[in-house]
Automatic annotation (TrEMBL):
InterPro entries, sorted: ABC_Transporter_SBP, ABC_transptr_periplasmic_BD, Vit_B12_bind_prot
Alphabetical list of Gene3D superfamilies matching this protein: Nitrogenase molybdenum iron protein domain
GO process annotations (BP): cellular response to iron ion
Keywords attached to this entry: Signal
SUPFAM superfamilies xrefs: Helical backbone' metal receptor
A Pfam family hit: Peripla_BP_2
Signal peptide start-end: 1-24
Name of protein: Cobalamin-binding protein
CDD domains in alphabetical order: BtuF (cd01144)
Length: 296
């Protein structure tokens, strides 16, 4: 849709004999409220987080990716990309050597000092930080503009919106279930209500027992979990099929979640990265919380 409109606009400008420079740039606003402009669609993109890599592939820009960071493992084609360090320890020399025409950074994950250095060197940097499901769709659309893949990106964005809307409607009147979501094991960590995972919990009729904490991903103690006594415990685990983090909670039979058998696993790639896979992860989470309601 956006490509068609742009083509029509260029045609109109030529027909009217107007100058073209105003159309020479592709501009979007990133999640740091910065304007990111390119003179032409990006052809050498570097993604500085696994989530950004996945979003770029979903937006149809996979073939334009020149490199990514470690743990960028989805889709499978992402595993073949050259690595430029990890999201926490960027290899600036390798990034510069690849001469990217677009870098996608992760605001709360990358060392922002390094990101600023890349900007100072003149590299276009899009800073990404989706905090709501609508942000995921909007990011897909923006990447489509910057990569010249608007049609694919728009389709992915619309599909994600429709799927999330269907879940909202289905569970709008669901009885609330108190939930502890375990995002990490050692140290024990969760998420607050500003985190995207908490939006998934709310859509499914859940109530995040640590939602009011100030940090986005706060550290907590097992004693704090025992005090909150959630009806359900949901963990992401260390792998796609490894619910081992749930086992230690069975040592606390006083927990409602343990008593009712409400210890649930959701594959981390489907709920802990801000990508379209969160639709599948949210569906899984909703099914788990529906099981918890049935056992109430």
């Amino acid at each position: 849709m956006m490509t068609f409109r742009r083509t029509m606009l260029i045609g109109l400008v030529i027909l009217l004999g107007l100058p073209l420079p105003a159309l020479a740039q592709l501009c979007v606003q990133d999640d740091a409220s910065q304007q990111v402009c390119l003179k032409q669609p990006a052809r050498r993109i570097i993604a500085l987080s696994p989530g950004a890599t996945e979003l770029l592939f979903a937006a149809g820009a996979g073939e334009q990716l020149a490199a990514a960071v470690s743990f960028s493992d989805y889709p499978p084609a992402a595993q073949k990309l050259p690595r430029v360090g990890s999201y926490q320890r960027l290899d600036l020399e390798a990034i510069v050597a690849l001469k990217p025409d677009l870098i996608v950074a992760w605001r709360s994950g990358n060392p922002m000092g390094d990101v600023a250095r890349l900007q100072d060197m003149g590299f276009p940097v899009y800073i990404s930080e989706p905090r709501q499901f609508e942000d995921v769709s909007a990011t897909l659309e923006r990447f489509g503009v910057l990569a010249g893949t608007e049609l694919v990106a728009q389709g992915a964005a619309n599909g994600f919106r429709a799927g999330i809307a269907a879940l909202r409607e289905r569970y709008a009147d669901a009885a609330p279930v108190t939930v502890f979501y375990q995002v990490w094991d050692d140290p024990l960590m969760t998420v607050n209500d500003s985190h995207l995972i908490s939006e998934a919990i709310r859509i499914c009729g859940g109530v995040n027992v640590f939602g009011g904490l100030g940090a986005l991903a706060p550290r907590i103690s097992r004693e704090a979990v025992l005090e909150k006594n959630p009806q359900a415990i949901v963990a992401g685990g260390m792998g796609e099929d490894n619910p081992a983090w749930l086992t230690p909670w069975k040592a606390f039979p006083s927990l409602l979640a343990v008593q009712k058998g409400n210890l649930f696993f959701v594959a981390p790639s489907t709920l802990q990265r801000p990508t379209p896979q969160m639709l599948a992860g949210t569906r899984t989470l909703c099914r788990h919380l529906e099981s918890a309601r049935a056992r109430h």
